[in-house]
Prior knowledge:
With 83 residues, this protein is of the alpha+beta class. 54% of the residues lie in helices and 13% in strands.
Amino acid sequence: MTMDTTGAMIATTGGYTITALTLPEELASRMDVLVDKAVGTTLRDNAVKEIIMEGVKSYMEGKRTAQQAARDIDDKVRLFLSE
C-alpha cells in the first residue's frame, strides 16, 4: 500500500488499483463489528470461485453496482449448486 498526496491509502492487487476513502465514524464502527464477527472460509470449488471473481471484476470495472454484482453472484452460485 502507498499513500497519495491527500493521505488516502492506495492498494494495487490483481491488476486493480483501489483508493481507500475515509469512512464516516458511524459506518466505521459498524464495519468494525462486522469484521469482528467475520469467519474465514476456503473456497474449494473453482467454479464458485470463478463466479465470485467474475462478479467482483464487473463491480471493480464499474460495469455493475455492488448490489448488482452481489445479486449476480448469488443467482449464479444458486443455479450452479442446484444443477
